[in-house]
Amino acid sequence: MRDKKEQANSRKASQVSGHFSQMDVDDSEFNDPFQALMEKAGNHGRYQTLYNFVFVGGLAFSGAMIYMNIILALNIPDHWCTVPGRENTNFSLEEWRDITLPKQADNRGREKFSNCEMFQMNFSEITDWSAWNSNGTKTTEACQNGWSYDKTWYESTIPTDHNWVCAKDLFVTNVFVVGRVTEVAGSFILGQMGDSYGRRFVYYISVVFCSLGRLGSIMCTSSYTWFLIMSGIVGLTVNSLFQSPQIIGMEISREEDRSRIAFFQSCGWSIGTTLMPLLYWWLRHWDSFMWLTSIPTAMVLLFSKYVIESPRWLISKQRFREAIIQLQKIAKINGHRFDMTEKELAEIYSRDKQDVTYGIASLFAGWRLARNTTIMGFSWCVVAVSYFTLVLFSSRMAGNPFLNFLYQSIVEIPAYVVGRYMGDTYGRRFTNSVSFLISFVTCLPIIVYSTDERYENLMIYLATFIKFLNALTFFTVNLQCLEIYPTCMRQTGVALGTILANAIGVLAPYLVYLGTTVDIRAPYYILGVLFLLGGIGALFLPETLHKKLPDTMEEAGHFGKHDKFFSLPKPPPAAEKDDKLSSHPELTRLRRSETAP
Fold first, then answer.
1. Looking at the domain assignment, is residue 16 inside a domain?
2. Domain that includes residue 536, residue range
3. Within a domain: residue 402?
4. What is the CA radius of gyration of the chain?
5. Element at 112 (helix H, strand E)
6. Cβ-based neighbour number of residue 190 at 10 Å
7. What is the C-alpha to C-alpha distance for residues 393 and 401, in angstroms, rounded to an integer?
8. How far apart are CA 552 and CA 11, in angstroms?
9. What is the DSSP letter of 22?
10. Which residues pair with 285 in a beta bridge?
11. Residue among 278, 216, 262, 244 nearest 421 (CA)
C-alpha cells in the first residue's frame, strides 16, 4: 500500500516537473513558485508595509493632487461684461446688470444675464436716468471693457486672471483634451517601457517629468501655448506614476494582499482629492494652491533608496542575479535571510522560456486573451469617461464648487471599502458588473428631473451616488486588470487600458461643455448607455480572485478557461497548493531553512 502511494506521488511530481512550462489550466492558475521565494524574503513584512505607505498610498496621495489640481484651478466662475458708469449712480449690481446686459437661456432653459454680450450704448454719458428709456436699448455687442467675475468662492482662477471666457471659452476644454491625448501617448510609450526596461526606470521618469510639467505650467500661464505644452508633459507621465509602484507592490506581496494594495492606492488617491478642494477654499488663489498641491510629488524622491525593481519581472527576463539582489534587499528590511544562489534560482525556472512579445499586439494573441483585453479596455473606457465627466461637472454645478468636489471625492473611500469586501467575497467579475448596472439605473431619474430646480439637491445626491459606484468599479477594474495579464506584459496591459480610457476620455470635457451650455441632461444620456454596456460586458471576464498572477503568455491565454459563468469563486485548499510546489527541491530547501534572528 505504501509503495503504491509513493509511486503515485512520484508520478505526480514527475508530471509537474515535466510540464512546468506547459501546466494544465488549473495548475497554472494556482501553482506559483515565486510565492515560495517571497515567503523566504518576506512577502508580508516591514518592507511591504513601508512600500505600500510611501510608494503606493503616499505617491497616490500626492499624485492625485498634482493630477487633479488643474481642474479646480481652471474653474470659470459666473462672469459678465464690465460696463463703466455704475460708479456715477446709486444702482445696485443687480439693477445695473439688468439695465446694461441682455438675457439668455442657460443649460436648464432659465433666463440669466448674458456672459458675453452687453447693450450697445455708452452708459457713462447718461446724466438723467429718470428720463432714460430702457426699452429703446435692443442692439447688443460683445464685451468691450473686459469682464467682471463672481468672487463668492474664488479670488482668482487661471481663466479669471487671463480672461479665458467667451471667445476663448474652449481654452479650458482644450487643456483637458490635450491632457487626455498626451496620456494616451504616454501610456503607450511608458507602459511598454515598463515591461521592457523595468518598473523602477519608468517610476523615476514619471515622478521627475510629472513634477517638472506641473510646476512649469504654473509659471507659464501667460503663454497659452507653453501652458498647453507643460500640461501635456504631466499627461505623458501621470498614469505610470501610479501604475509602476502598484505593480511592483503586487508582485512582491501575498495573493491575499493584492486587494489590500489596490485599497492603499485608492485611499491615497481619495484622501488627496478630498484635501485638495479644502486647500483651495482656504487659499482662494490658484497660484498658491497649485504650488502647495504640486511640490509633494517631487518630495517622494527623498525615499529613492527604498525603491526596488520587481524581482518577479527580473525573473521573467531571466536576470536571476539582479532578482536575488532585490530579494535580499527585501529580506534585510524584513529581518529575514535570503541565501539562494543564482544557480539554484535558475534551476527553478530552467524550463521556462522567455516569452517573445510584440508590445500591445501580444495582448491580442489568441481568442481568449484578445477577448479579455477587449472587455477590460471597454471597462476602462466607461470608468474613465464617467469619472472625469462627473468630476469636471461637479465643479460647475450650482452651489459651493469646493463642497461639490469634496462630496465627489469623499464618497470614494467608503466605496473602496465596499469594493474590497465585495471583490474579496463575491469576486471581481460580479462586483464590477453589478456596480455598472446600478449606475445605469441611477442615471434614469437624473435624466427625468435634472431640468427642474426643485430637485437640485436630489440631483447632487444622485450624482454623488454614481460617483460612489464609479469609485467602486474603478477599484475592481484596476485590480482585475493587474491580475489578468502575465508578468511579461502586465504594465503594457494596464497601459493599454489607460490608453483606451484616455482616448475615449477626450469626450469627457465636451460632455461637460454640452451639459453646462446646452442641456444639463446630455452627459447622463451617454453615461447611462455606457454603464449598461459595461455591466453586460463585465460578466464575460474571467474571475481572478484566488488565482495566482499569470507569468507567461501561455498561462494568460488559458486564464479562466474552465470558469463557470454562473458561479462564485472559491479558494483552493492550501494543502493542494503546497503539494504542487513540492516537486522543486530548491523551494523545499528554502521553506525549511531558518530565518535570520
1. no
2. 360-565
3. yes
4. 28
5. strand 111-113
6. 28
7. 10
8. 25
9. G
10. 156
11. 262
The pLDDT of residue 586: 57
Torsion region of 298: left, alpha or beta (phi above 0 gives left; psi -120 to 50 gives alpha)? alpha
pLDDT, residue 351, reads 65
Q: What are phi and psi of 177, to 5 degrees?
A: -65, -45
Handedness of CA 383, 388, 391, 394 (dihedral sign): negative
Amino acid at 580: K
Structural domain includes residue 129: no
Instruction: Residue 345: name the closest of 584, 49, 139, 552 by CA.
Output: 584
| pLDDT for the residue 282 | 95
Question: Are the CB atoms for 3 and 535 separated by under 8 Å?
Answer: no
Strands 79-81 and 147-149: antiparallel
pLDDT of residue 110: 74
Low-confidence ranges of the chain (pLDDT < 70): 1-32, 107-109, 131-137, 351-358, 394-398, 572-597
Dihedral sign, CA of 485, 489, 492, 496?
negative
CA gap 360, 510 in Å, rounded: 29
CATH number for 438:
1.20.1250.20
Q: Point out which residues pair with 113 in neighbouring strands.
A: 103
Strand (E) or helix (H) holding 536: helix 522-538
Q: Integer distance in angstroms from the first to the last C-alpha of the chain?
A: 43
Among the listed residues 290, 286, 233, 312, the one whose alpha carbon sits nearest the alpha carbon of residue 38: 312
**Nearest-CA neighbor of 291 among 304, 279, 305?**
279
DSSP 122-176: -GGG---GGG--GGG---EEE-SS-EEE--SS-SB-HHHHHT--GGGTHHHHHHH
The three-class DSSP label of residue 141 is strand
Which amino acid makes up residue 523? P
Asked if 57 contacts 265 with a C-beta cutoff of 8 angstroms, the reply is yes
Q: How far apart are CA 17 and CA 10, in angstroms?
A: 10
How far is Cα 104 from Cα 291, in angstroms, rounded to an integer? 38
Dihedral sign for Cα atoms in the order 221, 223, 224, 227: negative
Total of domains in the chain: 1
- pTM metric for this prediction: 0.76
* Residue indicated by cell numbers 512520484: 10
Cα torsion through 188, 189, 194, 197, rounded to 10: 150
Contact in structure between 336 and 40 (CB atoms under 8 Å): yes
The answer as to whether 277 is a domain residue is no
Q: Residue 147 is inside which H or E element, if any?
A: strand 147-149
pLDDT at 575: 52
